[in-house]
Design a protein that fits this description.
With 283 residues, this protein is mostly helical. It folds into 2 domains: 2-188, no CATH class; 217-283. Helix content is 79%, strand content 1%. It is built from 6 helices and 2 strands. It has helices at residues 2-33, 51-64, 72-98, 120-147, 150-178, 190-282; strands at 113-114, 118-119. The chain has a two-stranded antiparallel ribbon with strand order 1-2. The longest helix has 93 residues, at 190-282.
Length: 283
């Protein structure tokens, strides 16, 4: 059971690796082609990941496995065909779900396209790159990933899946609202949608800050009122304590004065008694 789970974790790590690798490849290619040259963040997600490359790699590896005796040219034809099908289906499914076209090859006059979703030269490029990856890059990647321990694989998959899930939810939320902004179909809107996504969440942060401020205002007012009430109650208590202390002091002063007057009266009475005894003895 652990062996099967380890194999599943290995394939999931392959998916994430080639999704990131595909993002690096496509972003670098589009950055170099942009005029003026500026960084282009490609892909559906916010992060450095293009899931279509990971899916294409998994499909290619599954379909090419039964044909182990293929030469490089036959591998190239099979990989190019699979990548074209995956790219077409991804474009079609995204457009049907979100009603927005992320990429389109209609503007490329030198390309033979199928509905603007797949083009001849990009398919050739994917076939060449895919053949190179499977024959030269993947054996090294597979040896590194398979050498990882089960616990490390599980930890990496858990972390990467959590990040990918959050990114996918945020990207889907933006894509569902982008259909009211972009009316595409024959224009490559990947960069525009990405910029719209960043501004979308900036606006959301502003709204969140405004709502937070609105929610904090009555709380602050209530806190100020409670502080004022506490200060007023404290002043009243202090006044009452001062009155009580003043009254106790007056009582103590009266008590001491009464005690002193009683002592003086007693002394006078004792003196009068002594004087009366002396007078009687003289007589």
């Amino acid at each position: 059971m652990l062996d099967i789970l380890s194999v599943v974790l290995t394939w999931i790590l392959f998916f994430y690796f080639y999704s990131v690798f595909g993002w690096i490849f496509e972003s670098t290619y589009c950055t170099v082609r942009s005029r003026p040259v500026k960084f282009v963040n490609r892909g559906f997600c916010f992060g450095p990941v293009c899931p279509i490359y990971g899916v294409s790699f998994i499909v290619v590896m599954i379909l090419i496995h039964p044909f182990k005796g293929l030469n490089l040219f036959e591998q190239f034809l099979l990989i190019a065909s699979i990548c074209a099908i995956v790219e077409y289906l991804a474009s079609y499914i995204l457009e049907k779900i979100f009603h927005v076209r992320w990429w389109s090859y209609h503007t490329s006059w030198y390309n033979f396209t199928i509905g603007g979703r797949v083009t001849f030269w990009t398919t050739i490029g994917f076939g060449i790159c895919g053949t190179a990856v499977i024959n030269f890059l993947h054996p090294n990647v597979a040896s590194i990933v398979t050498a990882l321990g089960f616990e490390l694989k599980l930890l990496l998959v858990a972390i990467l899946s959590g990040i990918f899930l959050i990114d996918s939810i945020m990207s889907s939320a933006v894509a569902s609202s982008a259909k009211y902004v972009f009316k595409g179909g024959k224009v490559d809107l990947t960069a525009e949608i990405k910029n719209y996504a960043y501004s979308y969440y900036k606006k959301q942060n502003r709204k969140a800050r405004r709502t937070a401020k609105k929610a904090i205002r009555p709380v602050r007012k209530a806190a100020k009122k409670s502080v004022k009430g506490l200060k007023g109650a404290q002043r009243k208590i202090q006044k009452r304590v001062a009155k009580v202390e003043y009254r106790t002091k007056r009582r103590e002063m009266k008590k001491t004065a009464a005690e002193s007057s009683i002592k003086t009266v007693r002394k006078k009475s004792e003196r009068m008694k002594k004087n009366s005894k002396v007078d009687l003895s003289q007589k």
